[in-house]
Structure formats: structure tokens, C-alpha cells
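Z., the sequence and structure:
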Amino acid sequence: MLIPVLLAVVVFPTAMYDTRELIAWGRQFPLTTPYHPPLMVWIGGIVDKVAGTSAVAAIAAGQLLMAVGIYYFWRVLRIVSSPTSATFFTFLFATSAYIVFGPLSFALNADFLQLLSWPAILFHFFSAQRTNKLSQFMAFGFWSAIAFLTKYNALVLLAGLGVSMMSIPAYRRLLSEWRFYAGVAIGLALIAPHVVAAFNHIGPIEYGAATFDPHAAISARLDYLASWIIGAFVGVFPGIIAVLFGWRTGVLQFEGGKDKANRDARLALLVTTIAINVVVVGLIVAAGLAYRPRYSPPYAMVAVLAVAPWVSWRDDAATWIEGAVARSIGAFNLAIALVLVVVYTFFASHSGMQEPTRSAAAAILADWHSRYSCGPGYFFGVRQNVYGVGIEAGRDVTTLSGSDLAGASWFDPDRWYREGAVIIDTPEDARNWQSAYQPGPAATPEASVALPLRRTRLNKQFVYSYHFIAPHDCAARREAD
């Protein structure tokens, strides 16, 4: 789990596009964002405040949170399976390609953070049923709210648990337990501020609705189904190879061991897994859900939890796990990491994770301050560039891409008028920004700065083209000076 952190230190120091965006939004700590529930941007804002904008900080924070999710994953398995199964499948999931290499692209992203909240929901749900303790019901409500504020598809998991409650008598009794409703009330209270805000700024609702296309072609729906399968495979690779090899050699058997505990919880996990995947496939087929591979790992994680209790072991399984499995997976992940270091240091470059955003911000701000004695209040422009440069320009600067401006509740046209803005965009688009949002003096002519990419030996540069829209509070004073 430290591999992506070390890769960021050595060869990929710049946060990827989604991470830059959530840091920029997180500085505003909004109740809603242009596209998503706000939890990931809150976390991004906290990480930025404590440790800065680097990929190292974001990935390290994400892996710390992931460690909590892995702990909950293990706790769920300890309820439903033997200690050997719990350790084995926890190891396989924690060393999967998604957790080891996914953070390079998706650090603190909502899809990734679901691997924190979903196992926590499952653990407290099963613990609440077993112990009937109010604290477990309240924790269930808390983590359900965290999952909802992370991504709305938490409702799919909760719906799956609802199917389990209705179909398994031991869980159906929760419907008559007041503690269950106390937990639900906790969850609803925690999400209420966001829900109220979302009715006033409906960007997240519109964005979610836009991912469905009931008129999508059959070929498109087949592509989405393929994405569902590919994403699930990434979420369990290379562990699935170890499981299949163990089954082939007889070390593992899919029949359920005599020492497996808590039959009701095992059955609930199985029913939940089937239900949530039926819902996902149904949404793809019937509603044209535009599914991406990175959506699948949370569903794959629940499937691993559901499968693990039904595995039995040969007597020498521990030796096999500690030898062949652990060493093979460790060597595989380390080899991939070393290949990435060599390739991206000497033979290739990554325009996102090696982008010189900090140097670009310094150069552009130096040009700005040579002209104006105040501002800029905003950085606007193309998403892939402006969020990286803008978050390096200081926490008193607000950064937004063109497509996000209308949905950002924190955008203040008066501040733009007073303090001016940097536009990282083409001349034509700069004029469009000017005419649409800030009539007045024209944007300055296009300027550019070319800087070498970071941590690569290739002689390759990244070019930033930019314009200024002058601040009104100090432009005249600067001219007088």
C-alpha cells in the first residue's frame, strides 16, 4: 500500500486532474459541488490545508483512509469466516491492482473512497444485528451518511442490504427495532444539509441524471457491461489468480468449511452482493447507465466478502499463502512499480503526473504582479491545466474551469470584477469568458510560458497559454504609480 506513495515521491509528483479539482473545490468547503456530493472535496481541502497540494500528500492521505477501510474489510470477514480466510482474502484485496496503483490517478476520488465507507457499513450492520447495541446502529447510520456524501450510489448498497433485511428473518426483525430507526435518523440528520443545498444547486443531481441514456445503442450498453466486468477484474487482480490456482491445486475448495461462523451474516452478504450487481446490470441494460471501469471495485469488494466464507482449506494452506502467494504478489507489484519508475524516468513522460504546475503558477503570477498591485482573485480556463496551476497560486485564489463555473455556488462575479482573473485558455475562449461573464476592458493578448516536465530525463516541455482580465480595484492605481 506504500507503493503509490513511493512512486509519487520518485517519479509522479504532480496530482492528477480529479485530485487537483477536488483540492480546488475543497478550499471552499461547499455543501454541494457542480457534479458530486461534497465529502471528497472536504477531505481534499483538509489534506491541502495540512500537507499541501502534492501527489504525495493526496496519495498518502488516501492510503491512510484506505487502511481504515481494509481494517473494516477484515473485521467483516472475522464475523463471517475463519481467521485463515479473513487474513488471506484481506491480503488479496489490499494488494489488488486498484488499491496499489489506482491512487496515482484517483487519490481521494469518490470511487476510491467508497472502499473506506462500504466495509464500515457492512461491519456495523452485521454487528448491530448480532449485538443489538445502540452504538452499532448509530455507527451504521454514520457510515451510511459518509457513503452517501461520498457518492450517491451508496443507495445501491443500502438497497442491497434492504433486500437482505426483507428476505432473511434474522435481519427482518430489525424493522421492528427502535435502535435501527435511531441509526437511520443519525444518517438522515448528517446528510440533510447537503440535500437541502442540492435542491438550490442541482448540479450533482443533473450530473447523476446525465449518466443515464435510455436511448443508448445496444453496442454502447454492451461496452458498459464490459466496463463493469473489466473494473471488477482490476479490483480483484492479481488475487483472483491466486484463488483460481489454489482451487486448481486443491489447496482451496469452494464448499464452505465446518468452522464458518454466523450463517445469517454469510447469507446476507451473498444476497446483498447478488442484489447490488443485479441493480447495476439492470441500470446498464434498461436505463443506459454510462458505466466506467473505475466504478466496479466497491462492488467487487463486496463480492470478495461474500465469496470468502464459502472457501475451505487444506491443512498446508498457511504455508502456501505465506510462501507462494505473498511472495508472488509482492514481487509482481514491486516489479510493476520498478518498470514504471524506469520507463517514466528515462523513456517516457506523463503530461499529468509530471506536469510543472508549481513553476507555471510562479511564472504566471510574476507576470501578473508586474502589471497589477492586487489580485488575481480567480484562475479560470481548461480543466486539465487550470486546476493544477490554480491550486499552486495560493489559497486566496479561487480556481474554476469553464464547465464548472455555472454550478459552483461559491463563484462571485463581484470578486472577479474587483480582483481580476487569469485565463488559461485559447484567445477565442478568453474572449468568450470576457463577454459572457465580465464585460469591460478586453483581456490582455495571449502570453505563454514553456517549462520542462518534472522527474523525467526527456527533453519535453509543457506550454501554458494565458490571458489576464485586469482587476478594477487596483488597475488605475497601478497605472498612476
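The beta strands are 252-254, 311-313, 378-381, 398-401, 421-424, 447-452, 461-469. Residues 3-341 form one domain.

Let me know what you think.
H.
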